[in-house]
From TrEMBL:
UniProt keyword annotations, A-Z: GTP-binding, Lipoprotein, Membrane, Nucleotide-binding, Prenylation
Membrane topology of the entry: Lipid-anchor
Family per record: Belongs to the small GTPase superfamily. Rab family.
Name under which the protein is recorded: Ras-related protein RABA6a
């Protein structure tokens, strides 16, 4: 999509959402985002804070929604994610790797950060990625689901590799944000 076409969409679209991906390095964030954004995948970078983002346009009921999804571009490795990454985000996908328990343990830390910088109203989907690697599983599905229920998060296991549940996870987040916004504007 070129810039002119993109601007035209901005004028037509009813909502523009910002959503962020977060979680330990190597859990599959970049693969999830590129799966979801598909042919509309456009990696722009914001060099000042070293993040990248992609867009996806979706129709929910009768509203045209443009979602701008931010990826850490590996900056989490250097603990370089700052409050500006989260600012203005209405949704977050908090990702761990079901084959690496440490990435699930760290979900608590990422959630704390999300709530500190993004506020309590943010829609958060907890995602256990790499579900195709069942033989190496270190985190049971029930455990992820149980934690999500305790923290009132949505939950899904995905495989970016096999394209399982990726669309569903993003759509869950976007639909929830849409619900919240349309209730607020009533
Ligand atoms: P990020 O650091 O969180 O952005 O993670 P990446 O998207 O770069 O993925 C890290 C590694 O995990 C890469 O080698 C990917 O090919 C691999 N990977 C990502 N998602 C999956 C998945 O669903 N299944 C499997 N088996 N590997 C995956």
């Amino acid at each position: 999509m070129d810039v002119a076409a993109d601007d035209a969409f901005d004028e037509q679209c009813d909502y523009l959402f910002k959503a962020v991906l977060i979680g330990d390095s190597g859990v599959g964030k970049t693969n999830l985002i590129s799966r979801f954004a598909k042919d509309e995948f456009r990696l722009d970078s914001k060099p000042t804070i070293g993040v990248e983002f992609a867009y996806r346009n979706i129709k929910v009921i009768d509203k045209l929604i443009k979602t701008q999804i931010w990826d850490t571009a590996g900056q989490e490795r250097f603990r370089a994610i700052t409050s500006s990454y989260y600012r203005g985000a209405l949704g977050a996908m908090l990702v761990y790797d079901i084959t690496k328990r440490a990435t699930f343990v760290n979900v608590r830390k990422w959630l704390r950060e999300l709530r500190e910088f993004g506020g309590d109203d943010m829609v958060v989907v907890l995602v256990g990625n790499k579900s195709d690697l069942a033989q190496s599983r270190e985190v049971e599905k029930e455990e992820g689901k149980g934690y999500a229920e305790t923290e009132r998060l949505c939950f899904m296991e995905t495989s970016a590799l096999q394209n399982q549940n990726v669309e569903e996870a993003f759509l869950e987040m976007i639909t929830k944000i849409h619900d919240i916004i349309s209730h607020k504007s009533l």
